[in-house]
Amino acid sequence: MSLAGKLLYQLWHRPVSHLRDSLRNGGPREVRRTERGRTEMETAALTLPIPSAVTGQPLELHLLTGRRFWYQTAFCLWSFARHSPRPLAPFIYDDGTLTEEFRAPLRRLFPAARFVAHAETIARLDEHLPVAKFPALRERWLNYPNIRKLIDPHLGGTGWKLVLDSDLLFFHRPEFLLNWLEAPDRPLHAVDCETSYGYSRPLMNELAGAPVADLVNVGLTGLNSSELDWERLEYWCATLHARERTSYYLEQALIAMFVAGRRCAIAPAADYVTLPEPAEAHACLAVMHHYVAHSKRWYFQRNWRRVSSPA
How many other C-beta atoms lie within 10 A of the C-beta of residue 71? Predict the structure, then answer.
């Protein structure tokens, strides 16, 4: 970028973008309230009560987290556990920043949790995705953390796994997810508020060999590790980048392409809500909210308090 371009970005585009984001999130006062709520949520995660004792075979859920998100992971798992008839044994993948300071409160809530260390993931990458053979996936793993939600839980593994984003809260019993976990037989995904893949549909359809469905959201993703073809994913990743550059939504695009043409278990959009709008964000009638984009406001200001209040 030229000097003039850099100055234009710093003096015009960046301030305008910041102002636009602020207004979208309710204005400066609401942004401050949201940040205060986020800080209070992080503190509250340290004192969440131990989930009530339940019996049965533990449910395995998979989440990527670290220093910036550990408390969201705690609330996600805790709110799920509150409505689960079986105990949780989560697999928690370290993004490279999950020190003991942040593992400890998660371990207190979920003693059966299995923490997958960053070094362990690197070793599996070197074994199953060597840089010389998988340069595109390895570069994206290093510079695009979202793709780790696809790679880290599944690489070198077998069987079905349900991977959750951390910014989810559960308000009621997640019957759909419990039933899938009981007998998974097809890929699972959530429904997006709008189709967001970052790539043209003709290119995605061409690579997938089947029409890619609209509105695939990967805040909830159930896949069979044994079915993932890493050479194919490498080709897709490299081709998407070469022909249409990179995108923030690459992980979502890859999974949408992977499930194209397949029979899927699709989380009912009315119960598993991506980006709750104000009426639902206040009523919390749905089973689950996924707090993306401007709905973070309701997440941090009020709804973590709602799930942690007495029933």
Answer: 24
141, 144, 148, 149: CA torsion to nearest 10: -160
Buried b (16+ CB within 10 A) or exposed e, 173-184: ebebbeebbeeb
CA triple 195-198-201, angle to 5 deg: 70
**Whole-structure pTM value:** 0.92
Q: Check: CB of residue 159 under 8 Å from CB of residue 226.
A: yes
Residue 88 neighbours by CB under 8 Å, 6+ apart: 51, 58, 59, 61, 77, 80, 81, 110, 112
Please name each of the domains of the chain with its CATH number. Answer: 3-38 (no CATH), 48-308 (3.90.550.10)
Dihedral angle, C-alpha 10, 16, 17, 20, nearest 10 °:
160
Q: Which residue has the tokens 């194919």?
A: 232
Asked if residues 204 and 197 have their Cβ atoms less than 8 Å apart, the reply is yes
Q: What is the mean pLDDT of each run of 10 residues along the chain (311 residues)?
A: 54 49 70 97 97 95 98 98 97 97 98 98 98 98 97 98 98 98 98 98 98 98 98 98 97 98 98 98 98 97 92 56
Give the pLDDT confidence score for residue 16 in this predicted structure.
Answer: 42
User: What pLDDT score does 26 carry?
Assistant: 72
Residue labelled with tokens 């075979």: 57
Spatial neighbors of 283 by CB under 8 A, at least 6 apart, are none
